[in-house]
Amino acid sequence: MKPYYNFIAGEWVQGARTLQNINPSDTSDVIGEFAQADAEQAFQAVAAARQAVPALAKMTLQARSDALDFVSRELFARREELGTLLAREEGKTLADGIGEVARASYIFRFFAGEVLHASGDLIDSVRPGVRVEVTREPLGVVSIITPWNFPIAIPAWKIAPALAFGNAVVFKPAELVPGSAWALSEIISRAGFPAGAFNLVIGKGSEIGSALIESPQVDAITFTGSVSTGKRIAAQAVGRLAKLQMEMGGKNPQIILDDADLNVAVNVALQSAFFQTGQRCTASSRLIVTDGIHDRFVNALHERMQTLRIDHALKAGTDIGPVVDQSQLDQDLRYIEIGKREGAKLVFGGERLQRETNGFYLQPALFTETTADMQINRDEIFGPVASVLRVKDYEEALAASNDTQFGLSAGIATTSLKYAEHFKRHAEAGMVMVNLPTAGVDYHVPFGGRKGSSYGPREQGKAAREFYTTVKTAYIG
Fold first, then answer.
1. CATH number assigned to the domain comprising residue 277
2. Which of 8, 70, 424, 464 is the most exposed place for a label (fewest CB within 10 A)?
3. From the centroid of its chain, how far is CA 97?
4. Where in this chain does the record put each Aldehyde dehydrogenase domain (predicted)?
């Protein structure tokens, strides 16, 4: 089996050991063996990135833009091949995998353009004979730590702006999905950046995290993952005043009002709660439904859930693939049992499924008769498990929506302009969706949340400049 190495200082290097990449749709399918970096190699990658900063500064804007455009074009040309790899290692359907690779291509294309939009301000001083220039400069070295649920899109929306704005990168992907990370890195390795400007280190956070977070040669850290890990990173990074950006958990609400179009409401809830196995930080796991539509909505959603096909990610007709691994499956099943013990009514699903191949298949679960204080309505489960909260009216729905430590995405299904406008202003979330799934976001606009969901500047679009650059004000007499 071909070994896949880490990429440090412009060279592919063996790791301290290897890790097998297993297909969650078929655990007998080993996708490849990937090198695992140790702490020493991680420090080498950081040092290589630091040494590459001067060479990056000498790249012309056109050369940097062309390099990012190269990555974009190759991703798009290979979207079916790489989408198949993504679906095979993460478990989302083939269509979702191909779509994610295409999205990564669009992200690199967007930032190839942003390179050429570099701008500053020339301002008159309040003092005579003095001019003021305000410009943006690269940070230097950025550590990028990404999760397993979007193994090519999330790395793309961090790596592309980091390189676009002239920073050197050390990239650590999630261990569960090294294949997509390696494929993206291999393309970047041929794009024309100076040696050391981009580095890939695959390994355990407990082993290589200190190099990526605590090293004084790292100027900034961008992280997407769990709240618990984010808090540990924050304690380490802020302690040495490193710039930090984090996207963490969500317990996103989807409100269904009495006046909602029933078909729209059901489609929005189904997509938000269960597709991509609910393994999205923007997924809706709390369905907050007003009295007048509650029973009709639950019955209609129940009927639609019965039509969902849960099967191998690469099989034609599959709606939902497997959970990513045994650990995540165990967590989902544990929360389903917690819901039952708390007194919630499991009206559908929640069973481990058997298919032609041995995989981590779980039937999506729907609870009703839940209360806001139940653990299944407080904790992020990160699986295809949704709870219905019955409320009296819009005011009670809004209060329930905001009753969470998180604030990433929030949705409402309604035909009332009055309630839609009020919800947009008063939902305590970074992103608000009206008659749309909470999990659908565009790559050219800001992404991020409030409260326990996010920390630091927004990601994606023009907002990315805020994190990946620093402002310099110069006075000229």
1. 3.40.309.10
2. 424
3. 14
4. 12-473
In a domain, 442, yes or no: no
- Tally the domains of the chain: 2
Q: How does strand 243-247 pair with strand 454-455?
A: antiparallel
Residues 103-133 have pLDDT tens digits of 999 999 999 999 999 889 999 999 999 999 9
Supply 253's token pair.
């609400």
CA dist 167 and 427 (Å) reads 35
- Nearest CA to 181 among 65, 19, 408? 19
Q: Which residue of the set 89, 114, 247, 380 is catalytic?
A: 247
Note whether residue 166 is domain-resident: yes
Residue 260 and residue 233 share a domain: no
| C-alpha to C-alpha distance for 354 and 351, rounded to whole angstroms | 10
Residue whose C-alpha is closest to residue 412's, from 385, 442, 437, 395:
437
| Beta-carbon contacts of residue 165 (< 8 Å; ≥ 6 apart) | 114, 115, 136, 138, 464, 465, 468, 469
| pLDDT for position 119 | 86
| Rounded Cα distance, 185 and 208, in Å | 18
Domain that holds residue 22: 3-248+453-476
pLDDT < 70 positions in the chain: none
Same domain, 276 and 347: yes
Q: Quote the CA–CA distance of 223 and 246 in Å, as a whole number.
A: 5
Q: Is 247 part of the annotated catalytic residue set? A: yes
Co-location of 198 and 330 in the same domain: no
- Measure the CA–CA gap between 398 and 414, rounded to whole angstroms: 13
Cα separation, 196 vs 176, whole angstroms: 25
* Whole-Å CA distances, 35 to 12, 173, 201, 450: 10, 12, 9, 36
Cα–Cα dist 221/462, whole Å: 19
**What six digits make up the tokens of 227?**
């709240």
Note whether 232 and 293 are same-domain residues: no
Q: What share of the chain is helix, strand, coil (3-state, %, to 5)?
A: 40, 25, 35
In the numeric block, the tokens 């943006």 are attached to 136
Closest CA to 5 of 51, 43, 36, 49: 36
pLDDT at 2: 78
- Identify the sign of the CA torsion 441, 444, 450, 456: positive
User: Based on the domain organization, do 23 and 150 belong to the same domain?
Assistant: yes
Q: Which structure tokens are listed for 377?
A: 């309505």
Residues 285 and 229 in one domain: no
Rg (CA), the chain: 23
Instruction: Indicate if 239 and 329 belong to the same structural domain.
Output: no
